[in-house]
Specification:
mainly beta, about 0% helix, four-stranded antiparallel β-sheet, single chain
Length: about 120
């Protein structure tokens, strides 16, 4: 599976962005797709994930109520809608995917086999 993340950019605090993660090679339908982010000088951290078979989701506390995740099986694409952005959301955002991820493991980077190249989100204050 090849993943292509896109949609990053520069936005003012309070604004919105939508990131896309497009998959090629295999259908997404049986996969869990997660978004992670890495700010300068920090470790990569979990943001949000969606299991496409049953639409189970997991959210990091820092983004609850502001970020949502959705999937389009026909387009083999998962979207990360980010609202009410804050400067601390500034990071490179990566999408990742794997099969057979149980809910309790969705936040674990090691659970994901395939990774996209990352897209930069910069939120100005």
């Amino acid at each position: 599976v090849q993943l292509q993340a896109s949609g990053g950019g520069l936005v003012q605090a309070g604004g919105s962005l939508r990131l896309s993660c497009a998959a090629s090679g295999r259908t997404f339908r049986s996969y869990t797709v997660g978004w992670f982010r890495q700010a300068p000088g920090k470790e990569r951290e979990f943001v949000i994930a969606l299991r496409l078979s049953d639409r189970a989701t997991s959210y990091a506390d820092a983004v609850k109520g502001r970020f949502t995740i959705s999937g389009d099986n026909l387009k083999n694409t998962v979207y990360l809608q980010m609202n009410s952005l804050k400067p601390e959301d500034t990071a490179v955002y990566y999408c990742a995917a794997s099969q057979g991820v149980i809910i309790s493991n969705m936040r674990n980077r090691a659970a994901y086999r395939y990774w996209g190249q990352g897209t930069l989100v910069t939120v100005s204050s």
